[in-house]
Design a protein that fits this description.
EC 3.5.4.5; Cyt/Deoxycyt_deaminase; single chain; 6 strands; binds tetrahydrodeoxyuridine; identical protein binding
């Protein structure tokens, strides 16, 4: 018997002001995307923006449905569009901003498990890390240098 310790390293920025300029520009795109969120049921709006290696920026927001499970998170809306539209272009980083319409969300909101699994697929496909930056409506911004860093013990194609 042995124990295995799994660690994740995150960088925490105290505010948007600390972000590198290019990351700030991507976060602004995520904010723009969030404004297009369709979230009449949860009243929780999320925006995501992905920078591609060809300098294109792909944006997505959560899209809800009266049949709740038919809706989709912002991160997957964005990454599936990027995968569908630019199948051979590497994804460099994703910025995510999320918050409730009913209260101020000032803690960083990480992508949900299903989104992590979906982002992992593309990270593995391109064999290059996808950086993630996520935040609430205001306050701290968290950076993960890769998706793998947020999803240890990932289920991937090697098991199939
Ligand atoms: N949501 C996202 O867009 N991304 C996440 O990672 C977590 C949750 C959305 C789904 C739903 O529309 C709302 O937030 C509340 O769960």
């Amino acid at each position: 018997m042995k124990e295995i310790k799994i660690e994740s390293l995150l960088t925490v920025y105290d505010s948007l002001d600390e972000l590198p300029k290019d990351v700030m520009a991507l976060m602004e795109k995520a904010m723009e995307a969030r404004n297009k969120s369709y979230a009449p049921y949860s009243n929780f709006s999320v925006g995501a923006a992905i920078l591609l290696e060809n300098n294109e920026i792909v944006m997505g927001s959560n899209q809800e449905n009266a049949s709740y499970p038919s809706g989709l998170c912002a991160e997957r809306t964005a990454i599936f569009y990027a995968g569908a539209q630019y199948p051979d272009v590497t994804m460099v980083r994703m910025a995510i901003i999320a918050g409730s319409k009913k209260k101020v969300t000032d803690t960083p909101i990480p992508p949900c498990g299903a989104c992590r699994q979906s982002i992992a697929e593309y990270e593995i496909k391109q064999n290059k890390p996808i950086e993630l930056y996520f935040m609430g409506e205001k306050g701290k911004v968290v950076k993960s240098h890769s998706l793998a860093n947020l999803l240890p013990l990932v289920f991937d194609k090697t098991f199939l």
